[in-house]
Batch of 3 targets.
Target 1
Amino acid sequence: MPAPARPIRSPLARLARSFAGAALLVWAVATLLFTLVHAAPGDPASFLVPPGASAADVARLRSELGIDRPIAAQYVRWMGRLLHGDLGESFAQRRPAARVLADALPASVALGLGSLALSYALGVAAGTWQAALRARGDRRGRRADAALTALATIAYAAPSYWLGLGLIAAATAGAARWDVPAAWRLPSFGASDPAGLTHGWSATVDRARHAVLPLAVLTAVGASGVARYARAAVGEVLANDFVRTARAKGLAPARVFVAHALRAALPPLVVLFALALPGIVAGSVFVESVFAWPGVGRVVVQAIGARDYPVVLGAALLYAVATVLANLAADLALPWVDPRRRDPPAR
Amino acid sequence: MWPAAALAGLALAGLALAALVVPALAPADTQAIGDVLARRLVAPGGRDALGAWHPLGTDAFGRDLLVRALAAARLSLAVGVGGSMLSGALGTALGATAAWRGGLTDRAVTAVADVLLAVPRVVLLLVVAALWGPGVGTTVVVLALTGWMGVAHLVRAEALGVTRAEYVTAAAALGAAPGRILWRHVVPNALGAATVATALGVGNAILLESGLSFLGLGVQPPAPSWGNLIASGRDLLIVAPWISLVPGVLLVLTVLACTLIGDALQERTGAGGR
């Protein structure tokens, strides 16, 4: 992004500007989606009516859906409804699309936040360790670093759905062949046991067990990306003079690492938070459909199969809002972790 | 990094060659289904009931997986490389124009890039596949239209640096036309960064195409793509795991090779972001 043309004085103005920018982006994405739908070939009414419907039926449905009006009127109406959180009615489920998405959201958020936290913890730890190994400079350190890099690069290259299929095979046929005790076998389908209890301790355990495999896949892919990035970021910091100075003045290596190196590597890691979100969204679309996890990703794939446009568009908008919010959060957090990004004091 | 990248390049070239040659030499059409009962689900290295040898086994319809997976490599490589080269070209053109023209053009390009970056790429691909119907053409076009922003950003930054360079001022003073300066000075300087970003995008594009095809929204069977081959083995995961394993391994190795080459290029030129 180019630097803002005029200096912004107060933090409050900065905040307002960030929020206005985010709102503008969401509006633009909504407009883009509206344009895409209306530029697409085909008349939604023609595949919504039952076979053998007359031209009059199609015309009535068109006026019912409001798609016989001028495009500008449709745009205004759609935007007006969006502002009220109304995404239209799901074609396939005959209930508000916002409801359909809201029902699927908790499962996705749980999976997404869980894998984000795990990816960050594992990835930053692995990347930092690798940078430390490399900084040590001896042969064993370099080898261990290379081995971890290879592992992360391979996990980064593997499609999440394929890893998921591998885990499903291992958890079913593999577990049977290797005589894994029943208590240790992990379910590979859905988010809970349909015949189990709905609340209480055993239900919580059941849900946690169902989450293990999808979380493992998302974390493997996410953590490898974070590790690649963290290794580079921390490695760059370790090469700086101030790290050498800190060492030279006799600080304990652990303190040099935490107080100086990690502290300075924080800004790129905060930016990575915003960058990592789309990847987790993408991963979740595939992982949810492989593991039949009842989240937004699976709902989208099903809605596409059913040509359920209100749900597809609503989900796209939801993902866009999440991405914009993540960027906004990273933007606002950056001056907080990186003093260089703070505005000069007002004169 | 460098020997690994050379090895990766060699492996990719070998794969591309095999993808061109093997399906062409294969005894049967890659999509044709022959004697299903005699040939189906032969394990890798086994012989079918008719005596033919299948180094990587056969699928549920008795088609040889080596031939199918290499035929799929044609499509997957073509879509991945084609999609990212198109997006690289688009990004270079838009980034250079934005930097050169400045003002309103610059703002418009940056704004469009910001909007496209606000929607995860997979979601845009899914929406367009849903609206326009899946297919190879749609996939390539959408990969190109959703992948240019990173390249444009880099090229714009490089080009902005070059426009301030003294030799550009000198060229302008000598009376060179703006178009000539853009083409002879600005674009060649930004090309390194654009190439690295494009190379880094190839692996990602191949992954995205395979994912769409896996969900049934990309390349449609019977035309083979790694994604739909993996999907076709999904129901036979326990009985015939090799159906999903073979294309998956090829896919991972290909993306790995692309990543290694991209990383090495980036390290060597010191240019390009993620």
Target 2
Amino acid sequence: MAHTSTLGELLRSQGVSRRDFLKFCTTTATVMALPASLIPVMADALEQARRQSVIWLSFQECTGCTEALTRSHAPTIEGLMFDFISLDYHHTLQAASGRAAEAAREEAMREHAGKYLLLVDGSIPTVKAYSTIAGISNLDMLKDSAANAAALIAVGTCAAYGGLPMAAPNPTSAVPVSDIIKDKPIINIPGCPPLPQAITGVIAHYLTLGTLPALDAMGRPLAFFGETIHDRCYRRPFYDRGLFAETFDDEGARKGWCLFKLGCKGPVAYNACAHVKWNQGVSFPIQSGHGCIGCSESGFWDSAGIYESIADGQFGTTPKIASAAVVGAVAGAGAAVLARGKKEKKAAAHAANE
Amino acid sequence: MTLLEFARGPAIHWALIILVAGTIWRLLGVLALTRGADLSRPRDAFGNYKGYRTVFSRAWPSGEFNVATRYQTVVAYVFHFATLIVVVGITAHIEFIQSLTGTSWPALPNAAGVAVGIVALVSLFALIMRRVTKPSIYCSNRGDYITWVLVAAPLITGLMAFAHLGPRYETMLAIHILSVALLFIWFPFSKLMHSIWFVFSRAQSGLTYAHKGVQI
């Protein structure tokens, strides 16, 4: 793979011009909301960056996060950067297997102790036997590997918030990374899968500045998760004017109207899909005609049906409210009987007094 | 469970149950206390039916009270209509009602909904100012003030949620739904029941007077 010693050399060897490199630095700095004065700093730092050791642990996951990251039609500078980091352990991408693979991981942890980035995807079952790698439970492997890591990045909603494995009834007692590791900085990059630029943007930030970017209250980088899909959606004018698609493939849907009534979770989903988009800016779910499912939010599998609008009530309604009407009628009849009884008694007493 | 899941789930569900049960309870409980028919012969041959006209004729105070009551009546009507339009005209509300009953109807554009909501809120503030500054007309008790707060809260929180003011959107939306849940719980046990009583109380007065020969 990349045997060059600095990132600058690698990019030059791949035919990336200095101009393109600076354009990349400018774009990345802008997307990460870094000040313009940092662009030359970023360019210098990336030029000189030595190979950062990265260990990628895959637990209860579907490999979708890796697929999103690595499947690009045209090589991008993000992709090249991902080639540049010293990916010392990754189930899908590494050449070694079996004992050699585990040995590579252990050696990387030893050699780069305190400096390697630990990327985790997939949730962790707290019942150890449910998921093991080389006979080591996910729980133990995570705790061991995190002990000497510089920082952890929880890639994908499974690692960040528990994801699909944690959906009811959570048969494997799955938990997110942040439930297990409490003493290391953790960045959550949720999404099912996350935007590749979010992953590489965070790594680029780390390579440049040596720190993790600004996070929101749920540990997500603000640069990619600071706004909702709704706030950047190109169909927002239709929402504001009250033009909605009522069913899939009706006239409104064909005209590209808002998908709020078809269950779009855009207003409560924080992610950058609406402006960064997928497959190098080609499209995103709403543009393709399907509402956002809110895949970067914690518990999105359980919180509501994918086609249920946010405005809907979340309860098996009609029977209970109908029975409330019956209860009310009974209570009312009872109150009426009591009141009439009291009235007649008072009337009789009044008549008796006369 | 997040705050939004709680608000959209058990909170609004139980609030609706209490609203329905409480309203029917009070309705039946009071309607059972009618005085019984007046068995004397009505002075006007059709008096008993003409008496129902009072339900409509009392929608506006009599001409001689106009000067004293015009401001109050106008502002109150503006508030009531604006609130009704907001409740049945905004897309998200129609979605919610549709999830309960299956019926739906076309919605207002959001900008119109916001404008009408602001009108409702401003008129509500005008009404509380009048109530507070004219104690000789309004003998207000605690229930009146609680009612005002619980009616204002959904309007304010709804506008804030839509405008993305205040807490994060999902939190503000949860607060809006919770404020509506509180209003539903308070409704059957407060003066807000006037929304149902007014028909019966106007009709009762009308029928009594019509029976005695008053020309309604």
Target 3
Amino acid sequence: MAKPKIASDWLCGCAGCHMSLLDIDERIVTVAELADLRSTPITDLKVPDVTGVDVGILEGGINNTANEEVALRMRKSCKILVALGDCAVFGGVPAMRNFFTLEETLRRAYIECESNDSEGKIPDDPELMKPTQVRSLQQVVPVDIFVPGCPPDADTIFYVLAELAQGRIPNLKGDKLHWD
Amino acid sequence: MVAQKITIEPVTRIEGHAKVTIRMTDAGAVEHAYLHVNEFRGFEKFCEGRMVFEMPSITPRICGICPVSHHLAAAKAGDELLGCPPPRPASLLRELMHMGQIVQSHGMHFFELAGPDLLLGFDADPAIRNVVGIIQANPGLALKAVNLRKFGQEIIHTLGGRRIHPNFAVPGGVNKSLKAAERDGILAGVDEAIATIQAGLQIMKVWAEANREDINKFAVFPTGYFGLVTPDNGLELYGGDIRLIGADGVQLEKFDGRKYLDYISEHVESWSYLKFPYYKKMGYPGGVYRVGPLGRLNIAEQIRTPLANAEHKIFKSINPGRPVENTLYYHYARLIEALFAAEHVRELCYDPDLLSTDILNTRIDNKGEGVGIIEAPRGTLIHHYWADEHNQLTKVNLIVSTGHNNWAMSEAVDSVAKTYIKQPVTEGMLNRVEAAIRAYDPCLSCSTHAVGQMPMILEMVDQQGDLIQTITRD
């Protein structure tokens, strides 16, 4: 049997969930034996295989049009979609931005900050994404498995990966379910 | 008609989201390559109204690769704002946590992010050009690298209860003292960590010897250099004043970082969400400078630990009397700093004050404003808060390490694109463009705190701006 294919990406988060994945330390060798790691931010394939992957993992919420595209593409590419970490599960710390208007937050960063020079402007090149309200992953695409935590600890992530790689659905409860 | 626009997106093996567009002339040569940092989060605005003491917990969520940097910069800004300087043992413990972070962040970058380019080659198959490829090619080395990162992460875990987003520093000090057994556990790992870093240095030197021609044409350009130093201009990562030197190596400024607004400004370009800091007196872009490992080793005249100092002398001999300008030497500088950090862990562990329980100054005298500065793994990190009499924040300004390198990364992308991209374009050429960014170890979540993450796209357009070609890899 071919090894299950896993792809991952990060959206509006901090990369901490992927770092927590690396905190499984030497167990990364086990994961590499059980599964085929395809496109991820720490490998060089850019997008999930066109023929699809078995498991898609997304860290971070959705706070702009580029995030939306990545989330939709991953949902289309994978059989099982995992929301990894608090930002993907419910928005997390970056969702604090929703207490302000986008205009206010952009003006603060690019025009008003004390260190800005007098030529401040809000970046608007067509190459750039457009910011949106901050949303959880589930608000944009259907999610199959939720792994909360900021970040989820390495043991939990290893458990989730090992279960999925062996064709089982992880059962998150007790110590594995925390929100801090 | 060979004019085209190439898009690389996302740039991989860097932290965050970036996109590169390369505009081509009608003759098929690179006209200009742009680095677009493509995320905005807005921490500077949404932290308004939060309490000062919450900031060491909120701001690490800017970045999960170097959360300790934001944790400590926020605590230091809190020390200043609340007028409660920490007792010496607390500063030592914070610095110990910081050294753990430098080792894990630099170690991970060299072996797990940049390493695949050096060990497997820029032109290696992208399907295996990653950490798993290293595990398969050299399992012994991969395991050492994993253990090096673990050593740094465990220091953070021992002090702050967790490896990522620790709970430790507070305005006025830290919330937990260190036990003798915990210190001994840290000390027990120092020798192995140093040995692994030295193995990395050996790999780097062999690689540099074999790739001298590339090193000398891969994004080599003059800038200023900027960062903290000790009073005698030695390498410093936790405290001290800021030193700025010019492209010729002569000191332009040495100043108390709390006065940073008198010396630097940030410029905005419409094509990137990441701002461009510069030295005010020289304007933009004349006053651009570089930070991080290469910048710090250029501004430092010596290092206070013996092994790192010996390596630093070799580094200084690369371009005697002048700064080292080669982008690829960031990797070498990063390993020398990791060596210093591991040696400094041992020094700190032997300090008689380290186990003291005098770790918190609770005498608060609200000053209304505070600046906290630290040398994060990627460069100088500045947190500046203003608060009302209830210690509730009214304004927040952040200048993050990778931001200082924004101009240099953009220049490196353009330079490498012009040096290496020829018709027909290959994947390996594009990977070199990414490697130019990777050398700076950008933390795009950090730099786009305000600004977010950095996915990267490489697009080629003709001189009229029409998209001709988008290259993505799968």
